[in-house]
Amino acid sequence: MKTCTWETLxxxxxxxxxxxxxxxxxxxxxxxxxxxxxxxxxxxxFSMYHLYPLIGQYISGTTASGxxxxxLGREEMGKENHVFAPAYKAEDMKELSEICDHxxxxxxxxxxxxxxxxxxxxxxxxxxxxxSTQEGHAIYDPxxxxxxxxxxxxxxPEELPEDIEGLHFHTLCEQDADDLVKTFYAxxxxxxxxxxxxxxLNLGGxxxxxxxxxxxxxxxxxxxxxxxxxxxxxxxxPGEAIALNAGYLVTEVQDIVKNDLDILILDASxxxxxxxxLEMPYRPPLRxxxxxxxxxxxxxxxxxxxxAGDVIGDYSFTQxxxxxxxxxxxxxxxxxxxxxxxFNGMPLPAIAxxxxxxxxxxxxxxGYEDFKMRLS
Length: 376
Description:
Blueprint: E1 2-4, E2 13-17, H1 18-35, E3 38-42, H2 52-55, E4 61-64, H3 67-76, E5 80-84, H4 90-99, E6 102-105, H5 108-114, E7 122-126, E8 164-168, H6 177-191, E9 200-202, H7 216-230, E10 233-236, H8 240-243, E11 247-259, E12 261-266, H9 270-273, H10 276-279, E13 290-291, E14 297-303, E15 311-317, E16 326-330, E17 350-354, E18 360-364, H11 368-372
Parallel strand pairs: 2-17, 3-4, 3-10, 4-5, 5-6, 6-7, 7-8, 8-9, 9-10, 12-14
Antiparallel strand pairs: 1-18, 2-11, 11-12, 11-16, 13-15, 14-15, 17-18
Helix pairs in contact: 3-4, 6-7
């Protein structure tokens, strides 16, 4: 791997911060040790497998949203490997049954279709507790009216099939323990009769466990209640919490356009390199950046693509920005690399790691062939 400085990194470039990652992982490791729960990396948020050997030193394994993520978790971490998908293709089930410890189905029809193909994997069913705790992010609310995710109580049989060993729900998005507690008790009220019939309960993801101020003791208390009362193994599937605030996106100013305000043209793109900026929408933290008009110099940050709405946001600075300056977006490890794309032929950002001693190593660079191989 090539060693660089922040000034010589190719741009755009994702940089994972090993020190901050370890700080998050220590919190999750201690949670496992104190409660007996199993923490799994939700790869849909963070799939930088170069760091899987490190992550595997702290937590129990990985969870996947389909065959390719499941294969990645097995190949690169090799610990517990779980999978949930709204539906499975028959041709994928043979391999999933060979590489996954838990296979979770989204409906009893899927369970019936694939139960034999699931082999020796522990089988679970995803439920819909019909308890929404989301505020402002309906796109990420599995309990929204008409949701396709999870089986409602009205669709549940009075007796679970004997080979179903676990239940799973996932309803949170960047939330604290109080919302999980509220959701669990709603789940317990509707599905409590099944909890003495199963071996494990998966509380899904969306837990911001490593965020400053998170009510960790409340989470521990809930896990203790579940294990003491029902004698179940508890699983948590955080993705964001593992790499929260542990990554950056470095970009360089290519031009400055004037139209009512000064607009920076960056070689990073919201549409291509940080899609959540447009989807949620989300305003990424910017090192040295402030809310618009708070400091003397305000700029709109945009991209080199032809999409008019490819705008990251308006930020102000204490000093004037020039062509060639580098800007660093923070909290860019999660839902960035996993969602990026090559719209407009935009190059994929390089991927680097900042080691604990401050040195930066390039893990991977991309070029024209990575763009071309997706097309025909």
